[in-house]
Inverse folding.
């Protein structure tokens, strides 16, 4: 039975010839030149009505296929041909899987490298931060040490200046006292030459043939005693009530003054600096003394009564010496 060719040409089994167009023979589709005919006359010989229904058309001849149609060969051949492609597809899938695994391994390695880089970066940052804090701490410690050294230097300088001032004050004090002694010696010579009565020098107060000096400074009992001795005197020794009244009237009622009495050698047994025992006493018997055993030196209190005090306590003092003529 004849098969329709291109542009409505029917090609019978006896007239199989190649026309310009596209044919599929033995499962192959090959373009063959230009499918347009050289002239319209080439359609006349084999022209037939091509408008018939597809059901009226017979099956195509063996070995000849419709234009661009699928091959209608042996089903077994087709299955073998198309079936052979499945293992290749499987191999491709396995290759693709291997590629995916390799890609996954590469991603894991890349991620591991990224984590290691991040850890190294964090460690470097912490190290830099530690160095920065260490530098700040070292600077602060150095500054503290420098300030402490400067403070110690200032304290040392202040102590040296204070000692120098105290020495200068002591020197001036004894210089003044020495000048007073010189004036008293001159007054004594004049007194003897004129046959006048005994008198006290400047800064001294006279009472019953004795001269008394009331200090304006405060020293310990031992240093006050030494200061009086440097002036040719001693700490005041009270012999009677009149002398006690004189001391009270000439002292500053808000201060205490060392007297020349102590029980340092034997607790409770008082003695004057001249070695004599007191024949009269004006102790404040109503005063409640705490730690009496540590208070070994006597003084004239603000109320005009004798009180005991620690010998190291700084108080004012009263010096006494015989008057000059």
């Amino acid at each position: 039975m004849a098969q329709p060719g291109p542009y409505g040409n029917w090609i019978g089994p006896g007239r199989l010839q190649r026309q310009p167009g596209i044919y599929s023979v033995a499962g192959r589709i090959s373009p063959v030149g230009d499918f347009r005919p050289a002239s319209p006359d080439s359609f006349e010989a084999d022209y037939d009505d091509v408008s018939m229904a597809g059901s009226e058309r017979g099956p195509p001849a063996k070995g000849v296929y419709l234009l661009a149609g699928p091959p209608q060969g042996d089903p077994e051949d087709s299955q073998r041909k198309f079936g052979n492609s499945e293992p290749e597809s499987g191999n491709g899938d396995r290759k693709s899987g291997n590629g995916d695994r390799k890609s996954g391994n590469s991603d894991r390695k890349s991620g591991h490298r990224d984590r290691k880089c991040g850890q190294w970066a964090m460690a470097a940052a912490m190290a830099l931060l530690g160095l920065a804090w260490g530098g700040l701490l070292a600077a602060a410690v150095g500054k503290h040490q420098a300030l402490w050294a400067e403070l110690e230097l200032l304290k040392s300088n202040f102590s040296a200046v204070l000692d120098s001032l105290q020495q200068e004050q002591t020197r001036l004090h004894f210089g003044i006292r020495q000048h007073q002694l010189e004036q008293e010696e001159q007054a004594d010579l004049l007194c003897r030459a004129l046959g006048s009565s005994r008198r006290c020098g400047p800064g001294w107060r006279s009472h019953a043939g004795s001269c008394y000096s009331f200090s304006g400074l405060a020293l310990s009992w031992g240093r006050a005693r030494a200061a009086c001795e440097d002036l040719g005197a001693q700490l005041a020794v009270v012999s009677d009530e009149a002398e006690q009244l004189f001391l009270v009237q000439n002292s500053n009622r808000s201060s205490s003054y060392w007297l020349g009495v102590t029980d340092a050698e034997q607790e409770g047994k008082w003695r004057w600096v001249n070695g004599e025992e007191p024949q009269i006493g004006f102790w404040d018997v109503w005063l409640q003394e705490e730690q009496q055993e540590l208070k070994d030196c006597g003084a004239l209190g603000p109320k005009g009564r004798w009180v005991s005090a620690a010998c190291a306590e700084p108080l004012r003092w009263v010096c006494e010496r015989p008057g000059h003529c």
Remarks:
- The chain has a mean pLDDT of 75.
- The two ends are 185 Å apart (CA to CA).
- The chain has three domains: 3-77, 84-179, 205-322.
